[in-house]
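Hi C.,

You asked whether I'd gotten around to modeling the 454-residue construct. I have! Everything is below, sequence then structure, no commentary in between.
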Amino acid sequence: MKQTHKLTIALNLFLGLSFAANAQTSAPATQSTELKYRRSSLHLILLESEDFPRKDVVIKAYHEAPFPDKYNNHAIPVTGVDPSGYALSESEKVTAGTRKTGMAAFGANMLSTATAGIVDKDAADMPTITNKIVKDKKIANLLVAKWFNRQPDGSFDMKLVGERGSYDATEMQANIAKGSARGTASLSDAGEELIGNTFVVLTKLKFVSNEPIAAAIREVAKLKANSLPAMFQPAALKLLDIAYNKAKEGYSVWTTSYLYRLKWNDSTAAVFYNDLWMEKGNIDAKRKEAFDKTDLFQMEYIGSEKSSSLVTFSLKQTRTEDQIVELATVRNVEHVFAKLQKTYEVFKPKTPIYSGEPVTAKIGMKEGLEGGEKFEVLEQTIDPKTGLTTYVKKGTVTVDKKKIWDNRFNAGEEVSESDNKDKEKKDKDQPELDRTYFKGGGKFYAGMLLRQIK
C-alpha cells in the first residue's frame, strides 16, 4: 500500500502538480515556486454598451484588472463586441420565449423610460443575443485555432497542448500523421482535460446613479399601492418613501456575465484530426478553406450571473473618485466570477494545496470565501487501463473562517464607509495572511487539488 502511495506521488510530481521538493512536507511560508497544474482555459469578451457616467474609468478598470489566475489565458482576437448590432426581431423573441406582453411589457417599458434607459427593458434577451454573437464571430473556431497554434498558412501543431498538459507534443503529432489519433490516450486525455474545459465569459458593465432608479421603482410601486384598499394605502406609501430615501444614495456598478463552454468530444476530435488537421510542410489549401468555413465547432451556453456594488464618495476617503470607481468595478467583476464558479460545476477551478500540515491554499475572498465552505481533496492519477487522467477523492476540508486570505483587487482598501467598519472589526481578530487555512485532517500534501463542494 505504501509503495502504491509513493508511486502516485511520483506520478503527480512528473505531471507538474506539486513542488519540486518533497511533496508530502508542508510548503514553507517563504515558498515562491508557483504550483503548476492543469487549469481550465478562459477568454474574456466585453459587451460594449451605451454611454453612462464615468464610462472611460469603468472600461479602463475592466481592461487593466488582473486576469483570473486559476485559469489559463486563452486569448483570441475578439475582445469586445457591440451587442446593439445583434438586437432580436419580434419573431426571435417569441422563439426565445422572452417577448413581453400585457402588463409585463407595460411595466418593463415604464421602468426603462422612467430611468432614461438605465434599466434595460430587453435584459432577458441577452442570452439569445450572446448566442448570436458567439456564432457570428465564430468564437469556437478561434478557440480551437488557438489551442493548435494555427498559422496563417493553416498549419497546426501541438506545442500549446503539450505545454499546458505536460504531454509529448512530438509524439502526439506523429500519431495524428499516422492516422492513429483516435487510439492515442494522450490525445483523448487532452481533449477531456484541456480542450473540453475551455470557457468564454462575455461581460456587460454599467455605472449608474441610484436616485433615478430608486425614484422609478417607487413610481411603479405606487401604482400597485394605489390599488390597495384605502385603509392600507398611507402605510404602504410611507414604506415606499422610506425605501426610496435609503436606496437613492450614491452610485452602483452593475456587472452581468454570460458563461460559455467549448463543445469538444470524440466525434468532433475525429473529424478535426482526420479532415482538417495539417502540419508545416504538408499544406492543403482545401483543408485550410474547410477549417475557415466549418461549423463543426460550437459553444455551449452554461448560464449567467450578475452583481452590483454600492459606491459612495466621502470627504473622509483619501482616494480620488476615479480610484474608488476603479476599485468597485474590479471587485464587482471578481464577485461575478466567484458566483459563476459556485453556481456552475463545470466552471469550478481546481486549486492545488499549498501546504499539507496545516492544509492551506492560495484562494480567498476573491473567490467568495467567507468561512465554513467545504472542499473535497483530490489526487490526480492515471488509469492504467485507459491511460486517461482520473481524480480520486481522498477526503474533505473546511475553510477556517478566522484565517481567510484577502486576495481581492487592492486588498485592504474598501469601497464604502460601511466596508471600512467591517474591515476594522475583522482586522482585530485576523492576522495578515498570504493564503487561506482549512480545517480537516488526512494524509494531504502539497500538489493535491481542492474543489469546492456545493
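If it helps when you're writing up: The two ends are 32 Å apart (CA to CA).

Thanks,
B.
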